Amino acid sequence: MTGAPLLFACFAGVMCAAIAAMILRPTPRLAPRVRPYTLVARTSLGRSADVLAVATPSAHVDRSTLGRLFGPPLLAMANMLGRLVESGSDESLAMRLRHAGYFDLAPEEYRIRQLAQAVSFGGLGFLLGALALHSGGLAVALGACGLIVGATRWRSRIDGAIVERCERLRAELYTVNQLLALHIRTGAGPVQATQRIVDRATGAVVEELAEVLVWIRNGVSEADAFRRAAELTPEPSVARTHRLFAAGVERGVDLATSLLQLSEDIRDARREDLRKSATRRRAATLIPTIAVLAPIMILFIAAPIPSIVFGTR
């Protein structure tokens, strides 16, 4: 009976907070709107252009009353869980999310989703043990297992997305380099050739090239924009292409020949990877055959041994 007044008070507080949020809307922040217009002033003063904050959408911050009340404790719990599951700063986590292709997902939102999934999996495990198995020990054990699985599931999802994105970049880069070399051979400059590819093509590599063009329009020099893209990409071969463009912009090297040579290296590396994958798959297909036939052959060989040794039939 003592829990009923507390539950009623919680519901009343939530209702009052919801009514206050509907009546008094929070004031929107001015910094995200002004930041794109301060790039030239920042670079002229020798400071960082902060192009990453402009090119990528900012994290959605809940400024409502409920967000201000329950947001800080939830964020603190999410940060605590994130430090237990993953090691690294917010910058490294933001880079991993970028490598995985989650450009709209900020580290805070990632940790909150991780916490929500851990709590949901842990709650399901606890309910399964308490209601279905009728055991307090099993309920706690299943809840702990569900909490661990839910906390690590997002990390494995990001790792898989990074591997998948790297494979996409490697598969698309050969064709993109060929097209870039074709445009440069016809007289286009590095930025002009990049603009033509972005206007006519789609894909993971084209998304990175489009981001380079956004940085250049925001006041970043062409060489610095390509070097920044080389630092942010998860695929080394794509980073080589970006660094090649940066060198071509600064020193005027023969980009077309270098791009064709890089495409040949990518094709040779991809052919070698396919050969190794085929070898591993061929070896994997032999395992079921060996596992089934080996015991039968051993039985046929070992069956006449007693009669041969002891002279019995």
Describe the model.
Helices cover 80% and strands 0% of the residues. The radius of gyration is 29 Å and the shape is flat. It has a domain at 167-269: Up-down Bundle (Receptor-associated Protein). Helix 9 (190-200) crosses helix 10 and helix 11 runs antiparallel to helix 12 (236-251). The protein is built from 14 helices and no strands. It has helices spanning 3-23, 31-34, 39-44, 51-55, 65-85, 90-100, 107-132, 136-185, 190-200, 204-217, 222-232, 236-251, 255-302, 305-310. The chain is mainly α.
Layout: helices, strands, pairs:
Blueprint: H1 3-23, H2 31-34, H3 39-44, H4 51-55, H5 65-85, H6 90-100, H7 107-132, H8 136-185, H9 190-200, H10 204-217, H11 222-232, H12 236-251, H13 255-302, H14 305-310
Helix pairs in contact: 5-7, 6-8, 7-8, 8-9, 8-13, 9-10, 10-11, 11-12, 12-13
Q: Features of this protein?
A:
313 residues; Receptor-associated Protein; 80% helix; 0% strand
Secondary-structure arrangement, i.e. CATH architecture of the domain at 167-269: Up-down Bundle
**Which quaternary structure do these chains form?**
single chain
Q: What level of helicity do the residues show?
A: over 70%
Strand content: under 5%
* Cα Rg: 29 Å
- Based on DSSP secondary structure assignment, what is the total number of beta strands? 0
CATH class of the domain at 167-269: Mainly Alpha
TL;DR?
It contains 14 helices and no strands.
